[in-house]
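We now fix the convention by which a protein and its fold are recorded. The integers have meaning only within a learned vocabulary of local backbone shapes. A complete example follows; check for yourself that the lines match position by position.
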Amino acid sequence: MTKKILSEEIIFAGFGGQGVLSMGMVLAYAGMIEDKEVCWMPSYGPEMRGGTANCIVIVSDESISSPIVTKFDTAVVLNQPSLDKFEKAVKPGGLLIYDSTNIINLPTREDIKIVPVAASSEAVKMENKRIMNMIVLGSLLGMKELVKIETVIEALRKVLPERHHKLLPLNEKAIRRGMELAQSAATVEAEQ
């Protein structure tokens, strides 16, 4: 039996300050730790917070021919403008994960898998709004086996400044909670 080759093109998108670029960076680092080919390409407006931000991440078992991608296997969106912009950029049969707490006009496509995750409200329940992005990253990992969760925790250790390492256990808890939320949302969708 031949091993299936991994090649995943992902867009993470939201407002600046939501941790969009960090999500992508952590995933890219985790891919590097696992000796995968990776690409992380950020894009953001001039505003530090409140402007739009997105990043393209490619994780592959093979060489990446180009970091420029216009159609994605997966879109992870954290706000309405990003959903409006990137829903149509998901390849047919692809995956769209969105923070349902911040979306008013729901996605409408029927040719992709759509997974709503109430990440912002879950972060409030976990008493730290800043972990919302790790809940969403966990949701992605719950839907697609791109890298091992242990590798993501190791990547977080490299990405987070040392002064924030005390937050690693909370971030791991957020990632694991996101995995649970995505899997239960996908189960509910499958039953409908």
